[in-house]
Specification:
By secondary structure, the chain is α/β, with parallel strands linked by helices. Helix content is 32%, strand content 23%. The protein is built from five helices and seven strands; from the N terminus they run αβββαβαβαββα. β4, α3 and β5 form a beta-alpha-beta unit.
């Protein structure tokens, strides 16, 4: 039992040194569709991002590795916005806005991107097995890369540049 727990902890905490390979455009599959409530009011759906590269991150307020990635995603959102990158965080917190809103409002987390709450059980649609999970979706709404667990910042950035065509 103990080796299993250690393996599970390593998968959740240890960053991978190499990110997932970006799938060639002709082999990409459409991302599962969704429409979710946003922190700022209106519902947001995948189709709203057509023509953009979307970094979709599943996270929770209690997830340490998720907190590690948040400043990176804020940086990417600013750095690559003009190139067509959008960053969206989807919280899987069961307590919903009651815990999400104060977390996002805390300047220590520095979140400058769209936050949604998973009310559709996207964890099943996107096969969430570890936290965090990040899906890079191309301009045509197709999955270009998937990361399960924490991945190094440089890996994310390299993939973002590749999918943006930079």
């Amino acid at each position: 039992m103990r080796p299993f727990i250690l393996l599970l902890a390593a998968l959740i905490v240890a960053p991978a040194h190499l990110g997932a390979d970006v799938t060639p455009p002709d082999q990409r599959k459409p991302a599962p569709r969704w429409k979710l409530p946003s922190l700022n009011g209106p519902r947001v759906e995948l189709a709203d991002y057509k023509g953009k590269v979307l970094l979709l991150n599943f996270w929770a307020t209690w997830c340490g590795p998720c907190r590690t990635e948040m400043p990176w995603f804020s940086e990417f959102a600013t750095k690559y916005k003009a190139d067509g990158l959008e960053v969206v965080g989807i919280s899987v917190d069961e307590k919903g806005w009651k815990v999400i809103k104060p977390f996002v409002a805390d300047p220590a987390h520095g979140i400058n991107y769209t936050i949604l709450w998973d009310t559709m059980d996207l964890t099943v649609m996107y096969k969430l097995a570890t936290m965090p999970k990040t899906v890079l979706i191309d301009r045509d709404g197709k999955v270009a890369a998937i990361h399960n667990g924490l991945v190094e910042k440089d890996s994310f950035e390299g993939e973002i540049k590749q999918v943006l065509g930079k």
